[in-house]
Amino acid sequence: MTLDALHPNMQAQYEIVLERNPGEPEFHQAVYEVMLSLTPIAGKRPEYTQWSVLKRMCEPERQIIFRVPWVTDDGEVRINRGFRVEFNSVLGPYKGGLRFHPSVNLSIIKFLGFEQVYKNALTGMPIGGGKGGSDFDPKGRSDAEIMRFCQSFMTELYRHIGEYTDVPAGDIGVGGRELGYLFGQYKRIANRYESGVITGKGLAWGGSQVRTEATGYGTAFFAQRMLAERGQSLEGKRVVVSGSGNVALYAVEKVHQLGGTVVACSDSNGFVVDEAGLDIALLKEIKEVRRGRLSDYAAERGGSVRHITDGSIWEVPCQVALPCATQNELPEAAALALIRGGVELVAEGANMPSTPEAINVFDDAGVLFAPGKASNAGGVATSALEMQQNASRDSWTFEATEARLETIMASIHDRCIETAAEFGAPGNYVVGANLTAYIKVADAMVALGVI
Length: 451
Ligand code: NDP
Ligand code: 2IT
Prior knowledge:
Layout: H1 8-20, H2 25-37, H3 46-49, H4 51-57, E1 62-71, E2 77-88, E3 94-100, H5 106-123, E4 129-134, H6 143-157, E5 166-169, H7 176-190, H8 211-229, E6 238-242, H9 246-257, E7 261-267, E8 270-273, H10 280-289, H11 294-301, E9 306-308, E10 320-323, H12 332-340, E11 345-347, H13 356-365, E12 368-370, H14 372-375, H15 378-391, H16 398-422, H17 429-448
Parallel strand pairs: 3-4, 3-5, 6-7, 6-10, 10-11, 11-12
Antiparallel strand pairs: 1-2, 2-4, 7-8, 8-9
The chain binds NADPH dihydro-nicotinamide-adenine-dinucleotide phosphate (NDP) and (2Z)-2-iminopentanedioic acid.
């Protein structure tokens, strides 16, 4: 991430971001990646890069940090920190997930919120961008502890959110169970059944078909479209997916439905290699129902499955790689290992899993690369479909909703390709995604004035 790589018009602005946000490396990284993509319009299209637009884009509209006290099953008082960064509402209410993970801090929530603004713009839906969460670690906690934590978290958050204001959803460590407790507490405090205040809800209480599957399915649809553009498909491809949470599981499922074979996935303790192709039913049972580990998968699946705890999943040879775990999980050395293993395409299911150095390696080697803000946008797009169903008190079938998701992913793909070609970077999905989204947000910010 060198200053020299940025267009001269961007350098001073990036330096200000560094100065105003010390100690926030993930946030710096996310801003840098977008600024790098602005080169084709910097100096040429002043209406998009004028100081105030970019400067305002780098400053969240509102940042909320709060104490979350809760009591363990043993009667101990614990204090966590809660965050909600309401980044940009020029296109619609703030929209973005909540992450519960011990690594959460302001830098991580700001990078995620910044990414979300552009991702949400790419979906074509009327949603702004925000993100939140807590440094709470849900691992090993009982249901009752999770519930008390969620209730305490919402007791502060409720005053900041609303169907027309800010609409949270899930992210790492926040799934259907947590969203249920969060929505329940909101409903109780607000004394109204405001379905559209949270997305990712259960099907019995206002949720949408396909929202659970949407991010992983969308990532696979996006990869399929990238291949189709080159007269290929996922059929017969050897695929590696990192992570084994919500996004990873449904990426695996859709890749299998599209004829590919996923031979490896991971969690924070290691990865499994299953040459016959991962058994998705067993994986879902272990991860979603039992909240177990990949070591359980290896033990129960038997055969030649290997559980490896001292290496990198990116050493497993594959043609398609879908990083679906967390930020910066795919550094330069991993990119080089993937290339040695014959990778042809990388599509990000996670947010910012590849470092800038890794992306350079893929570029130089001619590997097709899709950034998360394009390829994982299916989750938030389906959240917007959930809001649409809630607003009209309707619910759609699985088939109809999945068809909408597939169309949205195709249209994001095609817009990226068109914009990249228009601005002299044909086939570059990073430039295509960042410029498409940036121009959309910038246009709206100019139209709405200095606010
Ligand atoms: P989950 O909590 O369901 O799963 C996360 C997975 O990643 C787990 O397998 C977890 O392993 C692994 N993981 C998380 N943090 C780390 C870490 N620091 N080191 C190693 N492994 C880690 O989260 P999701 O599947 O929802 O999210 C995965 C990624 O996708 C995130 O980047 C998220 O921001 C992004 N995303 C999620 C969307 C959604 O709708 N849920 C939408 C778009 C993007 P372990 O269980 O061992 O911790
Ligand atoms: O990163 C993401 O896009 C999400 N975690 C989903 C956000 C949402 O509001 O559905």
